[in-house]
């Protein structure tokens, strides 16, 4: 690994749980010698990637990162941010994958990919606005959003399943709690007969749910086994999807998305 890569790699040590790190902390976490770590920290500070507290001498992420993140958001279209990871996910899943951003209570398409040769496929309307409560994407979003948002959504008939009344709040809250524990939402023949899906939330830089990513597939393609396979694939890519959009997955969610064997090895 090059010297530049080693220095920049130190930025990944900072997180919500440890926003400030001292020289000894970084040395302990990296296992590198003190002189090398100090040299890298000083270089990052000089470039504005880190800043040092004058009193505690601890480092935190610097203003250069905010400037670069803002520049990326202004100059790189959102679809370009996610295209590569969504295309790869569609090929791995062999199904339709789509990512949607929430605007109000509407699920607006950001990008979708369908890289497979199945004769039976899910039709997708990129300009349609599916009801929030009728989709796995909508439920995945609500499961990781502030509780008060559910009440607001329930009061808006546009979020309900077509031809049905408002969902029962008690049942809905129980389902959202299950989604939060499981790590993904699922739908089977709910919005359209013959179509199933699994979905996860996508988070912004403050770890707030702002979008969703879903894999949709014909129900005839499989039952619980297909759901489990696609959900596992989706959660395994959850961090990459969120980071492609400039966000950060909350640690508790990442713990659910990480297979137990990977957690044991880490």
What order do the helices and strands come in, and which of them pair?
Blueprint: H1 3-9, H2 23-30, H3 34-46, E1 50-52, E2 59-61, H4 63-75, H5 78-93, E3 96-103, E4 106-114, H6 136-143, H7 147-154, H8 169-182, E5 185-188, E6 195-203, E7 209-218, H9 224-236, H10 238-244, H11 251-257, H12 260-265
Antiparallel strand pairs: 1-2, 3-4, 3-7, 5-6, 6-7
Helix pairs in contact: 2-3, 6-8
Walk me through this protein's architecture.
With 266 residues, this protein is α+β, with helices and mostly antiparallel strands. It is 45% helix and 17% strand. The protein contains 12 helices and 7 strands. A 5-stranded antiparallel sheet has the order 4-3-7-6-5, with helices on both faces. A hairpin with a 6-residue loop joins β5 and β6. It is elongated. The model has no long low-confidence stretch (mean pLDDT 86).
């Amino acid at each position: 690994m090059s010297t530049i890569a080693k220095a920049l790699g130190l930025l990944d040590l900072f997180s919500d749980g440890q926003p400030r790190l001292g020289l000894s902390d970084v040395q302990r976490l990296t296992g590198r010698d003190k002189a090398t770590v100090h040299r890298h920290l000083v270089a990052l500070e000089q470039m504005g990637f880190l800043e040092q507290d004058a009193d505690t001498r601890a480092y935190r992420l610097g203003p250069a990162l905010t400037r670069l993140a803002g520049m990326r958001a202004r100059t790189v279209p959102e679809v370009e941010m996610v295209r590569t990871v969504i295309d790869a996910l569609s090929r791995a899943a062999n199904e339709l994958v789509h990512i949607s951003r929430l605007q109000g209570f509407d699920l607006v398409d950001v990008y979708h990919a369908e890289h497979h040769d199945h004769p039976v496929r899910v039709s997708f309307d990129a300009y349609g606005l599916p009801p929030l409560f009728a989709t796995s994407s909508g439920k995945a979003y609500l499961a990781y959003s502030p509780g008060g948002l559910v009440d607001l959504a329930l009061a808006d008939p546009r979020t309900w399943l077509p031809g049905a009344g408002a969902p029962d709040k008690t049942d809905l809250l129980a389902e959202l709690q299950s989604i939060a524990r499981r790590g993904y939402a699922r739908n089977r023949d709910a919005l359209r007969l013959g179509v199933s899906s699994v979905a996860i939330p996508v988070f912004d830089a403050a770890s707030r749910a702002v979008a969703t990513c879903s894999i949709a597939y014909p129900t005839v393609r499989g039952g619980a086994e297909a759901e489990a396979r696609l959900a596992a694939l989706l959660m395994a890519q959850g961090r990459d999807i969120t980071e492609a959009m400039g966000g950060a997955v909350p640690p508790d969610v990442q713990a659910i998305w990480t297979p137990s064997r990977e957690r044991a090895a880490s």
